[in-house]
Amino acid sequence: KKKIIIDCDPGYDDAVALLLAAGNPNVEVLGITTIAGNQTLEKVTRNALRIAKLAHLDHVSVAAGSARPLLRDQVVVAANIHGESGLDGCTLPEADYTVDQRNAAQFIIDTVMREPPQTVTLVPIGPLTNIALAVRMEPRIVERVKEVVLMGGGCHIGNIKPMAEFNIENDPEAAHIVFEEKWPIVMIGLDLTYQALATAEVKNEIAAIDTDAARFLTQVLARFSETYKRSKGFDEPPVHDPCAVAYVIDPTMMQVRKAPVHVEYRGLYTNGMTVVDLRKPAPEDCHTSVALKLDHKRFWDMIIAAVKNL
Ligand code: BDR
Ligand code: CA
Fold this sequence. Notes:
GO terms for molecular function: hydrolase activity. The protein is an alpha/beta fold. The chain has helices at 12-23, 41-54, 79-82, 104-114, 129-137, 141-144, 166-170, 172-180, 190-193, 200-207, 212-232, 242-249, 296-309; strands at 2-8, 27-34, 61-64, 120-124, 147-151, 185-188, 254-258, 261-263, 274-276, 288-294. The chain has 13 helices and ten strands. The site of beta-D-ribofuranose has 15 residues, from α1 and α7.
């Protein structure tokens, strides 16, 4: 089994990522850490606890992380997409267990240093503040983790700004820290996630499954479709975050290319941009890759199989 820590801000698509990780037999969730992003830290942490309960992950620690970016005053929450609660319109059990006493960064360090080297994959699917803090507090985690598979960025496209994707834009300094460390990083950016559309066909197939997890997923995708249509004009919503989990489980469902990536954190118009050098083959020692093409059918089949398991 592949061991992962999911650092998230649920959030509709974060919820899908958690369901996939919980229901797939080839992945073991060592912990869930939370970060302010789609909503405030308090709200996303409550959501994480409740999703964990629904997905039978309540034996797994949930550790809350940073309530704000490293340098900037506050996150710009995405209430226009995810609602005031971060998961508006969805039914979840109330969680009857509490968060880990440790900060997310400390939890990540403890877990990575406890497990054998090269066995833990970090899966950040929100702003990168917790990961940046962890690496500054304990630099040895860079050599110790297997890889960092993150949802964020894009090859010179953005969603929150012309050139910036939400997770990177919310804490560009943290993203800069994370990308400059020499651990293997796979960037699952908008180029890839814009192919992970929840089509009517996919939604119908999920609606026919008789599990609590599938019913919840149906609500999530219905709301996500509505808000993406209303605020961004998408006919079908791109379900970003589970793409990172899917890559960990089966990287062959994506085309990935090695390329140097740097984060712009001082640009006048380009703050939060991931600058990807695709001009020529990457140098031997390049530690970053970007995901470019998704097998849509295999991706959704994997999610559907996971919710059937829960
Ligand atoms: C990312 O931003 C968030 O709103 C989503 O959960 C996803 O992680 C997409 O840009
Ligand atoms: Ca997210």
